[in-house]
Amino acid sequence: MIRRFFSYYRPYKGLFILDFSCAVIAGLLELGFPLAVNQFVDKLLPGKDWALIIWACLALLAVYALNTGLQYVVTYWGHMLGINIETDMRKKMFDHIQKLSFRFFDNTKTGHLMTRITNDLNEIGEIAHHGPEDVFIAVMTLVGAFLLMVSINWQLALLTFLVIPLMAWLAMHFSGKMTRTYRRLFGDLAEFNSRVEDTVGGIRVVKAFANEEHEKGLFSVNNFRYRETKLMAYKIMAKSMSLTYMFMRFVSLFVMVCGTWFVIHGELTYGQFVAFLLLTNVFFRPIEKINAVIESYPKGIAGFKRYVEILDTQPDVTDAPNAIEVDRLRGNIRYNAVSFGYEADKNIISRIDLSISAGETIAFVGPSGAGKTTLCSLLPRFYDCTQGGISIDGTDIRHMTLSSLRRQIGIVQQDVFLFSGSIRENIAYGKLDATDEQIWDAARRAQLEPFIRSQPGGMDTIIGERGVKLSGGQKQRLAIARMFLKNPPILILDEATSALDTETEAAIQQSLAELSQGRTTLVIAHRLATIKNADRIIVVTDQGIAEQGRHQELVSSGGIYSRLHKAQFGT
Ligand SMILES: Nc1ncnc2c1ncn2[C@@H]1O[C@H](COP(=O)(O)OP(=O)(O)OP(=O)(O)O)[C@@H](O)[C@H]1O
C-alpha cells in the first residue's frame, strides 16, 4: 500500500526535493534558535557589548527572513505537490471508472462512486504533502533536540526522552482505531450521498406518491448514523489529544523542577536552563506534528484503501490483446449458439442462433423479460456471452477493439439519457467534431427543427438535468438526432418511438425508415404496429426464438405472434 502510494510522487520528484529540502533547512534553523539564546544569555549579556548584541540580532533577523521564505515555499509548493497527487489520483480513478463494465455499474450505487471520487480523496493531498515531510522533520528535530539537550545536561535529557515511549504507545493504540472508524465513516457518507442522489433524482416520483415524510425518515436514519460514526471518530481523537497533552505537560513540569534543582546546585547555568526549556518546546513540537499526522493519516489511508479497491476492480469486458480496429462494417450479424445470464447459474438466453444480413431490419417481440434487450446488448459487448459468440461480417466481436466495435452501432434506448447542457451539445454527442450544419441536418431529420427554432436560445437552449425541460417526445427526437449524426452501419432501436404522439411517431418512423436504409437495424418493440414493415420479426420467449418471419406470415400462422397481434388489435 505504501509503495503504491509513493509511486504517485514519481512525476513530481523536483517539487518533492524542493519542498523537502526547504522543510529540512527550516527545521534545522528552528533547532539552532535555542542555542543562540543560550549564547546570548551566557556570553553576550555579561559582556554588555552593544555592537556585538546588535550584530547578533541582525544575524538572527537574517535567519528569520530566510525561514520566512522557506515557510512560504513549504506551504505553497508543498501543498501544490499534495494537490497534484490528489488530482492525479482523481483522474486515474475517473479514467478507470470509464473502463469498468456494465456489470460493475449494475451493482454499484452512483452516490457511492461519487463519494469515493470526491470526499474519500480529500485528505490524500494533505497526507501526500505533510506525511513524509513532517515525519522526517519531526524525527530529525527530535534527534537533533535530544542530542543538543544531552550536550547541555544528559540527566535532564533522559528525563525528557521518557515521553517518547508513551507517545509511541498512544500513536499505535489510536491510529488503528481511527483508520477503522474513518473507513466506516466514509461508508456511511457514501450511503448518505446515495440517499440524497436517489431522492433528488427521483423527486418527481417522491412528490407524485406524496412520500416526502417517508424520504425524510430514511434521510434522518442515514444522517443520524453518519453523525454517530463521526462522533465516534472525534471521541477517539479527543482521547488521543488530551492524553498526549497531559503526558507532555507532565514531563515539561518534571523537567522544570529538576532543572531548577540543577541550577540551584550549580550544575546548570541560567543560559543553559533557558536553552533547555526552549529545546523542550522544540522537542515537543514535532511530537505534536507527528500526532497531527497520526490524526489525518487514518483519514487519508482509509480513503486511499477505498480508492485502491476501485482501481483493483477489473472490467470484465475488455479488449483482447490482439484486438483489431475495424473500419466501417457492412453489418452482417451472426449469433452463434449464444448463451448468457447476468448471474452465473441463471441463463436468460440459451443457445440462440440467428443470422441477420447487412441492411436487414429485424424486430424482436415477445413477452416482457424474455431477453430481447439483453440479446441486443450483447452486440456492442455491454456484456460478453457466456457461451457461443457473435460475429459481424465474419469477425468475432471479441476480436475487435471495443471502441471501434461501438462506433459501428447506434442505440436509441427506451429510457433516453440526456446530459445537462444545451441541445447542441446533446446532439453533437453523436459526433463530437460535428459541424453546425451537420447538427442542424440531424435535428431536421429527427423532426426537431421547428421546436429548436421556437426556443429563444435556439440550439443553445439548456435542457436541464437529464433533459428535464423537454417533453418525452422531444427527448426521444433528440436521441434520434444524435443517431442521425453518428450514422452507424448498425442500429438498435429499443422502443425508440414509444414516447411520441401518433402523428410525430409516424413522421419519425419515416425518418427511421430513411435512417435504416442500407443499415442493419434491430428493433425491440412491443407495439406491433411499428414493426409491420420489418424484413423479419423474431418472437423471443424465455425458451429462446419461438417464431420468425414477416408480419403477415406470423399473423396467419396462429402462433404466439398472432396471439399478441389479437391482444393488441382485437382481430
Ligand atoms: N442488468 C441486469 N442485471 C440482472 N438482471 C437483469 C439485468 N437486466 C435485465 N435483467 C433480467 O434479465 C431478464 C431479461 O431482461 P430484458 O430487459 O432483456 O427483457 P426484455 O425482453 O427486453 O423485457 P422488456 O420487454 O420488458 O423490456 C429479466 O428477467 C430481467 O430481470
Automatic annotation (TrEMBL):
UniProt keyword annotation of Nucleotide-binding present: yes
The organism of origin for this protein: Paenibacillus thalictri
Name of this chain's protein: ABC transporter ATP-binding protein
Coiled-coil portions: none
CDD domains: ABC_6TM_YwjA_like
Transmembrane segments: 12-33, 53-74, 158-176, 243-264
Annotated ranges, domain ABC transporter: 333-567
Bilayer topology term: Multi-pass membrane protein
Family classification: Belongs to the ABC transporter superfamily.
